[in-house]
Amino acid sequence: MAINKETITGLMETIQNLYLSDDIPWMIGYSGGKDSTAALQLVWMSIEGLPIEQRKKTIYVMNTDTLVESPVVSKWVERSLEAMRTAASEKHLPIIPERLIPDYNNTFWVNLIGRGYPFPRMKYRWCTDRLKIQPVNNFIRNKIAEHGEVILVLGTRKAESSRRNQTMTNLEKKRVRELLSPNPTLANELVFSPLEAWTDDDVWVFLMQYKNPWGYSNMELLTMYKGATADNECPLMVDKDLPSCGKSRFGCWVCTMVEKDKSMEAMIANDEEKEWMIPLLEFRNKFGNEEGDRERRSFRRMHGNLQGNYRQLFHGPYKKEVREEWLRDLLQIQKNINEEGPEEFSDLELIRIPELQAIRRIWVLEKHEFDDAVPRIYYEVTGNEFEDPSWICAEDFGKEEWDILQSVCQKLYGDQELAFEMMYSLIDIERNAVGMNQRKGILDNLEKVISRTFYQNEDDATQYYMDKMNRKKDYGGKYNEKFLSYGNRPLEEETDEESEE
Q1: What digits encode the pLDDT tens for the residues 41-51?
Q2: Considering the entire predicted model, what is its pTM?
């Protein structure tokens, strides 16, 4: 379709009629990118064109901040939301911007550094649901409970990909009302996609021809997209031989679902003032590198059990020393950016205090690492005391006792890598069960520790698991047939980690 004044006017009338047709509140997904900006701008212009007395339905603008967004884009969105609040109030518009974040106990860093989850990959993509889907669905469910039904406005377009085209076309066939498609994942939610027939160029033409109604600059948005394109080009005319800003992808700077963060690399290459982001790229490449990742992880799964294919064990969570090293590096990068980066990022938080508090609880209370490394690492890097006012834990054991126990285990058991883990876990369970009321189940907990730490090393554990599978096979039990087979283990075999939680 060709974008001109007549098509925009007609679309705005459609939006106005749909808005006035019922009392169902609207929710607009806004990422700060071109598509969501265009969709929100269309709705804003349409509602602003209505008399004030007809602007009764609330319109929630939902922005999902994963807490690991590209800092440049995150700052852009933050300021955009502030501008929306001000403009909506001044223009008497029922538009409410909402910043949605994941639960602090379930963020990227809490899972990667805290729990030791392997970095996300195609067969184990644990990040999307936790960081993006859950915050939005929780917000929407609350509004559905309050209003009975909601209409979700998205900037999705059929031209984005053949898969998106097929999905949107299939949902069109299930429409219960004109222009409104059902959401297959949430009941009582209808989806309106005003840009469904637009191309990349249609979006840019609209944004360049119509001034941003909440006072932000669409030209700056175009410039940001240009900066994230390898050759710094952003043509608006349709030409399959030319790159398009529509191919730029802004997202999490930690994303390991792609081999390289090309948008951030292009930003740095196109603007020397953004060279302060180089450490972010280097850090992301460090933990997202497939090579050597097995050695950084325990040969047991998340809960200590063994599993594998082709006579090799699957490796599970990252080891203690790796998690601590990454936390130290992350805090150091954050400190350097705060002190030496651009003024506007002097308060940038790559990892938040509530996340550090959650990591502390996982390490000490769940993993029994009673040396309590988070406050120590935080102080050594920042020079500041770690704030955790709700922390309640016995302090009779700490770093000094940890070091003594580690030294003793080294002398007694040598290179038996799990002996120390068995000892500190058993001691921690016992010391925390100080009263009769807290001793319930202590024998089961002690047994669990022993059952997952009695191996000398990975070779010993592999042989133990193989003998176990052979016994099950001999006695007609259910066994892991793949493990007893010869062959090469696929690189990605993390699909069952979720089910172990």
Answers
A1: 999 999 999 99
A2: 0.87
